[in-house]
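Schema walk-through. Below, the input block comes first and the output block second. Nothing else is stored per chain. Lengths vary across the set, and this one has 475 residues.
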Amino acid sequence: MVTQYKNLINGQMISTDEMLDVVNPANEEVIGQVPSCGEAELNEAVAAARAAFPAWSKKSIDERRAVVQAISATIKENSDELFRLLTAEQGKPHAQAQGEIIGASMMAGAQSTLDLDDEINEDSEERLSRTRRVPVGVVGGIVPWNFPVMMAVQKIAPALLSGCTIVLKPSPFTPLTTLRLAELIKDVAPAGVVNILTGEDSLGPLITGHPDIDKITFTGSTATGKKIMEGASKDLKRITLELGGNDASIVLPDANVEKVAEQLFWSSFTNAGQICVAAKRIYIHEDIYDELSAAIAEYAKHVKVGDGAQQGTAVGPIQNKKQYDRVLELVQDAKDNGYKFLVGGDHDPDVPGYYMPITILDNPPEDARIVAEEQFGPVMPLMKFSTEEEAIQRANDSEYGLAGAVWTADPDKGVEVAEQLETGTVWVNEFLHLSPFAPFGGHKQSGFGAEYGKEGLLEFTYPQVITVKKDNVPA
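--- output ---
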C-alpha cells in the first residue's frame, strides 16, 4: 500500500482530494502520494503565516532560537527514519542521505547561535543613532530536489530566527522526507509559523505572485530564477536566489596526482553530480593531464552505480526522468560530435531506474555543450590547459559564477588563482565544504543574495534606523 502524506498548514496536518505520485528513481515505482495544493490551500497557508507573524516577531531572539534548536534536535533524533526515506525518494546512497539529514540538523543548530545585535551609528552629545534589524514578514520558500531536506532547513532556520514566518514548497519530485519532518515538528513552533505544502510546479508562480508574501527565497535553475525575479517585481518582494552553476576546477602542474585524483572524482560525482557547486569543468595542466586523467578514469571503474538503498552503492540514479533525459541528450551530443570518452557514455534503457553510468570525457572543446552547459548529472569533462592565465580565462568564460576550486601543492599560489575567479565561493585543495557561519551565494547569473552566516540571516530582515536628538526634549 502506498503511504499518503499530509501538508502542514496552521499547525494541522491536512490533505486534498487530488494527490500526486512520488516515484523512487531507483526502480520507477510509486512510493508515496502527497497533496496537490492550489490557490485555496496556498491562501490558507499564507493567511496562517500572516496571522502568526505579529506574535512570533515580538518574541525575543532567544525564544526563537530555542525553537530552531528544537527543530535541529528533532531532525537528529529521527535521523535513521528520515535518511532511509530520503534515499527512497531522492536516490542518493544511504551514507550520503544520512550525511544530508545530520548536516541539516547541525546546520540549523549552528545557525541558531547567530545574533541580530543593534549597531550604533552615532553616540554623541547631540544624538544617539542605532540600526536595528526587523523581520521582513511572511517568507515564501521554494526548494529543489537534489538536497530537499538540507535546503528546506536552510530556509526555515534563518527565517524563524529572524522573526519571520514561512510557507515552504518542496519539489514535487522529493516532498516525502520534508512532509515527514513537518509532522514531527508541527508542535515545536506555534501554529502558522511554519507551513509546508506540496503541489505541481504551477504552485511556484502562485507563491511568487502572492500579495501577502513579503520575501521569496529560492534554490534552483537560473531560468526559473529569472521568472521568479520577474514575478516578485510586481510588488517589489525581497528575493534571495541561489541558482545554477557551471563550476570550474583548476589543477595546477604541481598538484599531487595520487592525492587529488580521488578527490576530484568525488568533487564531480557526489550525489550523482546533482549539486549546484559540483565540479562540472575540470582544467588540468598539460604537464600532468595524461597521468591525472588516467588515474581518475581508473578510480571511476571501481565505483558502484546502483540503488542507493543497496550496500556498496556509491553513486545512485539521477533523481527524475526529466533530468535523466537531459543528461542523456548532452551525452548523445558529445557522441554525435565525436568527442572522446575515457569512461562511460552508454546506458541500458531496459534497466528500470534513471541510471547513467559514470561518464568522463577526454579534452572536449570549450564550446561543446557538455562543457558550456551545466550537466547536473554523473558526467565530467576533463580539459587540458597550458598556462595559468589561460585556465583562469576559460574558467571565467561563463554566465555562471557560483563556485570553483584550485588544486596545488602551493596554497599561496592557490589563493592567488582563487582571487581571480569570478565566483561566490572558491576552495583551495578542498571541495563541497559550506560553513553555517560563512555566506554562500553566486556571482553573475548564479543568483544574488546570500544564505548561511550573518549575511544569510540578514536577508530575512530590513534595517531600521532610529535616531534620538538628545537636546531637543519637549518641555
